Each structure stands twice: as C-alpha cells, then as structure tokens.
Amino acid sequence: MSVLPLAEPQPAEHAARRRAAASEGAKPDLKALPTVQRRQKGLIVGVLMLLITALAAVLATNIYVANSQYDVVQMTNEHRDLVHQNQALSQQVQFLESPQSLSNSAVSLGMVMPAPAGTIDLSTGDIVSGAEVASSSEVPSSFVSAPSSLQPELSAGDVAEHAETSASGLLGTGALHTLSQPSAGENSPGTATGGTSPGTDLHGGTIPAPKLTD
Amino acid sequence: MARTLSLRMRIGLAIVLALLVVLGGRLFHIQGLDPAGHAHQAISNRLHTVEVPAARGDIIDTQGRLLAGSADRYDIVADPRLTGDYTVPDEELGMQRPVTVEETAEELATLVESDAEDVLERLTAEDTHYSTIARNVTPEVHQRIMELRAPGVYAEPVSERTYPSGPVAGSIIGFVGVDGPLEGLEAEENEALTGEPGERIYEVGADGVRIPTATYEEIPAEDGQDLRLTIDQDIQWFAQEAIAEKTSEYNAQWGNATVVDLREGREGEILAMADSETVDPSDPAATDELFRRPLALTQDFEPGSGGKSVTFAAALEEGVVEPESEFSVPYRMTVDGESIRNARSHAEYDMTAAGIYARSYNTGTLMIGNRMEEQTRYDYLRQVGYGEPMDIGLGVEGQSILRPPEEWDRRQPLTTQFGQGYTGSVLHNVQLYQMLAQDGVKHPLRIVDAHVDPDGEEHLVTSEPERIFSSNTSQEMLKLMEGVVDYGSAMGAQIDGYRVGGKSGTAEAAGAAGGFDGYTVNFIGVAPLDDPQFVVSITVHRPAGQFGDWDLTNTFRDIMTHALTSYDVPPSEEESGAYDGFVGERQDYPW
C-alpha cells in the first residue's frame, strides 16, 4: 500500500481543472454537480428495495423457523405425555391381564374351577370320558399375590373409560405399539428441551419457555 | 492546500496504518490461528451431546405375554447449593408469592410419599451438590414436581423395569437393583437385553432451543434383544397356586412343581418351574432369601424311590431283567451284612419286576440291581445326569453329589440303588424322566427359547439331543410307570381318559447338624403314555407329619390335567399296558 492511491479518489477531470485554476491564481471555480439521472435514481431505489425485501425475507424465515422449533418442542412434549399416558394405560392392561388378576376377576364374577371335560371319539361316536358338573365350592386359590408395584395408576385414567370412549381398535396393540415407540424427534425426553408440558405457566406469552434441564 | 500530503498527515497515516496492521494481525491470530481455542470453545458451548438410551429388551413367555418390560420413570434429585426460598407468580393474587424451603419440602414429601423432614434434610444437606429425593417416580408425579418450579430440584429420566405379573415366574426372571441386574435371567442375559446406547449431537442457542440450521448428528441406539422363554405364564401361575396350596396343606418348608414339554420340536422346554413361594421382582426384599432363586436348581436332595428308575432302566438296558421276571420279595433282607427293609411290613410275595417297581420295594430293587456291577450302576447314574451340575442357562447351576464307587461307604452300594446316598436337584430328576419318556433320548432342559432382535429376527436356542437308553428300554419303563399309577404307590395320579405313568419317592432329608431330620417327598409323572406330551414333577421338602401321611398325586393330577387341556391333547386311545405286579391270578395282595 502506498500514499499515492489515496490521493486518487477525486475524479481526474475535476482535479485537473482544480490544478489549472490554482496555477492561474484565480478564485475557486464553484460549479453545481450534475444531478443524478432519473434512471440511476430508480436503480438505487430498486437496490434498496431488494435489500429490504431480502432482509425481511430472512427475518421472516428466521422467525418462522424459530417458531416451528417451539412448535416442535411443544409437540414433542405432547407426544411424550401421550407416550407416558399410554404406558400407564398399557400397564393397567397388563396388570388386569396377569393370571392372578384374571383369576380374582373370575372369582368375583362367581366363576369356579372347571370340572373334567367330556370327550367323544368322533370316528366311533363313543363317549371316551363323561363331562362332570363343576362344583360351586371349587373356587381357585389365591396364594400368588398380585404384582406389588403395579397397582393401576388412577391418575392416568381408567383404561376401561378409554376403551369405552375410543373408536374401536384405538386401544388395540397397533395403537399401543405406535404410541409406545420412542420419539424420532430431536427433542425427545431427556434432551435439552424437555420438561415443559401443556399447562405450564406461559408468563403471559403463547410459547412455553424451554428449559435446559429436564 | 498543498498538492502532496503534509508531513503531519503522513505521520498520522503511518500510525493509523501501523495500528491497522496490528489489528489485522491480531484478527488473523484469533480468527485464523485461534491458539486459545475460542471458536472451539464457542462451538462446544453450543454443542450438546445427549446419550440416546437403548431400550432394555423385554422378557416374554412362550406365547408372547409380557413378563418383564420397561417404563419411563424419573429420579428426583436436588442440588442443595441451589435450593432455598423462592417466589412463584400467583395468578389469584397477580403477584409473586414467596415459598420457603420448608414448604417446598412438605409439598415434595406429599408428592413422593415420604417424610417431610427427611426431604428437607436432603434439600438442605451440606457438603454435597447431589442428593436423591426419590427414585423411580411416575411421569405424573414428575410433572407435578416440575410445576412447583423449585430451584435446585431436578429430574433425571431413568428406565424402570416393570413386572406385570408380579411373582409369577419371579425367581426365573430375576430382578434388577439400583446398580444393575442382580438375579435370574435379568442378570444372566444382561448383555443381550442391554443393547448399545446411541448419541445425539446438536447445537443449542442461548434460549435453550436447538439451532435448526446447525450441526445435527444422530447415532441411533441399538435396542436390546427381547428374550422369549419356554415358560408358559398361565401354566406357571397354575403350578404356583397348586404347589403353594400343597405346601401350605402339609406346612412344608418349600415345594416345587415343574412342567416340561415333550411335544415334538419342543422337547426339554421347561413350561413351568413353580415354587411354593416366589419373589416379586418389583420388591425382592419382601421375600425370604430362599425363594429369590429357583428352588428347582438351588436345592439338592436325595431322590428317594424316584431313583429306582435308574436301577430298573439300567437293568432292562443291560438285559439282566425283564419286566415280568419273577422274584420272591421279602419285607427285610441282609446283603453284605447290611440290613435293608421296605417301608411297610409285609409277607413275602412272589412278584414281577414290574410289581416291585409299582410297589417300590427296596428289597426287590436290590435283587435286580445286584445283578449289575457297582461300576455299571454308577455309570448309568452319571449318564442320566447325576453327579454333574445342571445348567439350563439361568446362571444358577443345579448341584448333584454322587461319589464314585471306590469312595462309597458300606451301605452306599445298596442305598444308591433306591435313590439314597446321592443327591440331585428337581431338574436332575425331571431330566431322567424326560429321557425315559422320550425314547431314551436326553434333550437337555432349557428355559430360553429365543433371543429376538429389535427387527424381529429370532435366534433360537438349541441343544444337542443324546441317546442314553434304547427305545425298547424307554417303552418298558413307561409300562412300569403305568403300573405305579394303575395299582401301585400313586393311584391318585390317574386322569380320566389318559394313560398316566409316574413314580413316587420319599427320602430322608439331611439336617444342618448332620443326620436326617425330615423328608423330601416327590412324584414325577408322564402323560399320555401312548405319546408322552408332558412331564410334571412335584416335590415337597420337610412336610409336617409322619412318613406315609403325604400324597402329592392330586397336585400332579391338577397340573397335568391343566396342561393337557390347555394344549388340547386328545385322550389316549389305547388301553393300559401295565404288567401284572404279582405272579399268578391274584393281584390284590395287601400293602
């Protein structure tokens, strides 16, 4: 870098004229600059508009992306809550399906142990063994206790209510499977943005404040 | 104005330029070379690496019913350096409401169902920045705790094992402690169940939300394999109920009922291994230590008369006896100076070998067994599995003590012929009847059916069958066992429509102080004999009462009937194949 190029910026023509005037020792020759042409004006406005539009677009995109991110957070939380609710409900189902619970339910419905079943030989038509009447005193024993830690979680609602109100098949294994799958999103439980849930204080806003710790 | 720059201007310009060069150099130093690693530090501040936990595999029964699964839970922990009084916005008052740490402790205690003072102590503990307030709280409770928004109170997501059927098959499944699996299949198959955790790397902005356009990497977790057992949850439960009832009836120390599948393609699969009392894996501490591991493996005892089956099968195999060979059987006899007698006094009978087996006479058994060398009998005992540990892939080996003939005392050459003088676990005994029922071929007992990958691919656990007895010996043994049920010592085991065979046994139980101070009673049966489908073994240890008071056949009958009807086994078409027990027409001699 040298000093000289710094002296250059003035238009060469203008500088020459100034040099001429100086040599003549006359008064500075003041002259109005030529006005910017209309076409150039339009170009500048256009460029400015373009810049502003681009800026606005970038801003809008940014806001949109940020907002979507919050939506993702919210939906992930909703998904997680549903997964948890579903887990609680399927635990109730499993609890009710356990042999002890089935036996207890059967007893409360007045059922008793089956008597030997009768068998008929279809090829000969002979009665191989005769069926007997089940005795009303043959109530199944209950030595095996119900699972200790798995009492139905009432907070999640009763699975029977859900079964009644849901469309048929909603509580089928398919639905259970879909809901119990781990979330594919990047904000699944345990990651940076977990911890908020519907019903959290929004501090007057519409977007829940994200939390770093769960 | 001079045409060239003044000296002052030049000096000023030079200084500015020099400063520019310095700044440029510094910029290059920081931005280009970055010796202090600022850029790296900035990225690592934004960069979050989160472990993606691998889901622990489920344990399911042979029908796919869930025996052990996992559920999301939270550990509630506190950093006592950050806890204290705080304020929360109160909507009703429209202002901030102060909350003291004591109030926080009380609310937490109500939510996690513990003592408020204890929680307060944990919240205000000194010299620590980590104290656990509660473990494994449900998502519901976790949410309510987070709504308190108490400072310094955090939740750590954890996965808790759930056992929907509680104590059904509890000792087989095992359990998991705070630091990892402790017992049963949870411990033995831990590696397969665990899987590989993955990783998720992303950048987080100052507001805590992921920067959508920045780095994002995900290494997916490899979930653990599911474990499919050979256990049938329904039969397991039924057997647990039945054996608990029997054990309670006789006020015994413990009881065990084991059901083994003999159906084609499933030979040797354990359908049920039920103990009179079983640990609930969710709460292992509530159960006596004896019942936290499967009794069918942990307990070894003298097989008693059940062991006569080895003597009879060996004699048939060696050709030293036929089922209808005749013997004159006394109540008492003396061999090599040792006096041996039967359980009950009786007149001398002319009996067949089948009759001796059916009535379980020790004297008659000796007459047959003594036709073989000691070493031969010992070799057969070893071949059927006694003297070897029993491993079914559960991490607990069943023990069996059998000394070689040269170490036998004076009575052992005799007592080992009728199931005394050596010990075995329930599964040792069951394995013997499995091979006797299945054409003389030993199919090693097992409890894990398959490992199932997360994508559903199955890796079946197989075992090598091994022939021990000839097909003929096996057929004859089944007929001998049928005699036991038809007219012998276990007539209560008869099931209407099915041909049933089995062998009962009673042996004295060795006490802790040496000598014998109780009994171990067992019955092992097979049905239907025309095409054996199941082996059911019932064992009761130290029942109260006197010798001869106990009868396990009704428990056997209940469990066997349940198994036969559950698996739609058709009734037998053939008539009984049992041999006569006594020589001549008359068969109803008194016991």
From TrEMBL, chain B:
GO terms for molecular function: penicillin binding. InterPro entries: Beta-lactam/transpept, Beta-lactam/transpept-like, PBP_dimer, PBP_dimer_sf, PCN-bd_Tpept. It comes from the Bacteria. GO terms for cellular component: plasma membrane. Residues 266-560 form the Penicillin-binding protein transpeptidase domain. The keyword Nucleotidyltransferase does not apply. It is found in: Membrane. Keywords: Membrane. Residues 52-177 form the Penicillin-binding protein dimerisation domain. GO terms for biological process: cell wall organization. Belongs to the transpeptidase family. This is Penicillin-binding protein 2. The lineage of its organism: Bacteria, Bacillati, Actinomycetota, Actinomycetes, Micrococcales.
